[in-house]
Design a protein that fits this description.
With 393 residues, the chain is mainly α. It has helices at residues 5-18, 22-44, 47-64, 74-92, 101-112, 123-136, 142-150, 155-162, 166-179, 182-194, 199-209, 216-227, 230-255, 257-261, 266-296, 301-338, 347-386.
């Protein structure tokens, strides 16, 4: 898919900002602040909250810019982070109207009248009017309408900033015009434009960035890891993932204690030890792969593939363990079942009962493994979304 004009214009600054150029990033903030704040406002319906969310988004994107593998994906990546932060805000903070009852109705009625919009409209009044207006809009048109008026009614630019076709933007804008009177919509448009972030917002963001870690910090740290030796090098680079892997190793060792303790032959014990040692190596290797996927790639593909590979190997090794202990388990089950039968004529029934018990236990084991895998995938995806790595484009 070819890049839009806006994406082409942003690309040099995205590339420079990834190298730690704060001036290039300030230009990105200036170009994208209206789209980010409009997306946030469309979701939270509160001007102050949308400004706070926008600041958080830009600071987070500055810190994580080194993870963006494809600079051309900057806009969809930024939109994804904004929506995630805004929905998190709704979850953590219930937005309450600052004006309610008869006073709210009076404010809305005055705004809808033919009188000129006051330049010194109170912030509480702005929030009330804006929240009411956004609620009237179709959900799929809110971002478009807000950004359309903040970008001084440039539908092509709106389409490029939101990753939509211009025809789609024009169609949804026409739908809104049919819902609201043209005169009233013009007044809303004037209010929307007056609440758009300006130069002061960009300045505030750049000031805050002096306290935030720049994207080049990660590159410098990678260089440190590459030039370090011994334990310090691997401990720094793989710290979190390898700690998790070491926890997995302890789980393998603990889980294999009982099967090894109950092994009735040297052959069975040696086979179980083999599977245990392979499992330990596989867990450590998987931890290493997962750490590398986070360190040297952007997005969600590499971490998900690493985790999938880990689960596939673990499933294969689990199958080998069950195959090894199957003869002993069947013999034990048959021995237990024999107490329920009085004569040899029931030997076949004893065998069938033991086989069913074994299969039932194995089924529950696999159900547990599948359930744990799904829980693991859920945790992985939640982590990827929260870090801003789960995006398309």
């Amino acid at each position: 898919m070819s890049m839009s004009i806006t994406e082409q214009q942003l690309l040099p600054d995205v590339t420079a900002a990834q190298q730690g150029d704060i001036h290039a990033f300030s230009r990105l903030v200036s170009r994208c602040q209206r789209s980010v704040s409009s997306i946030a406002l469309a979701i939270v319906k509160d001007i102050d909250a949308s400004q706070d969310i926008s600041q958080q988004v830009f600071i987070h994107s500055w810190q994580q810019l080194h993870t963006l593998q494809n600079p051309a994906s900057y806009l969809p990546w930024l939109r994804q982070i904004t929506r995630y932060r805004a929905y998190n805000y709704l979850r953590d903070n219930k937005v309450r109207s600052k004006v309610g009852g008869e006073q709210a109705e009076a404010i809305l009625a005055e705004f809808a009248s033919d009188t000129e919009l006051s330049d010194d409209l109170a912030q509480t009044q702005q929030n009330q009017i804006m929240a009411d207006f956004i609620s009237q809009l179709p959900a799929d048109s809110r971002e478009i309408v807000l950004l359309f008026y903040r970008e001084e009614q440039n539908s092509q630019l709106v389409a490029e900033l939101l990753g939509l076709s211009e025809s789609n933007v024009r169609k949804k804008l026409q739908r809104v015009r049919e819902l609201l009177k043209e005169q009233l919509l013009a007044k809303y448009g004037k209010l929307i434009l007056s609440t758009a972030p300006g130069l002061g917002f960009t300045t505030a963001i750049c000031s805050a960035l002096t306290l935030a870690s720049p994207p080049v910090a990660a590159a410098s740290a990678s260089a440190f890891a590459a030039n370090s030796t011994g334990i310090a090098k691997f401990g720094w680079l793989f710290g979190g993932a390898m700690l998790g892997a070491l926890g997995g190793v302890l789980g393998v060792v603990w889980g294999m204690k009982q099967p090894l303790k109950r092994a009735e032959s040297n052959k069975e014990r040696q086979q179980l030890l083999k599977y245990r040692n392979i499992s330990i190596g596989w867990v450590l290797l998987s931890g290493l792969l997962l750490a590398l996927s986070y360190q040297f790639t952007a997005g969600s593909v590499a971490p998900v593939l690493s985790f999938s590979l880990f689960l596939a190997g673990l499933g294969y090794l689990q199958y080998g363990v069950w195959k090894t202990i199957k003869p002993r388990l069947l013999a034990k089950m048959q021995q237990d079942a024999s107490a329920q039968y009085a004569s040899e004529q029931h030997a076949s029934a004893q065998h069938d009962s033991a086989e069913k018990t074994y299969k039932r236990q194995r089924l529950w084991c696999w159900i547990g493994i599948i359930g744990g895998s799904l829980a693991g995938y859920s945790g992985l995806i939640i982590g990827l979304v929260r870090s801003g790595r789960w995006f398309w484009g």
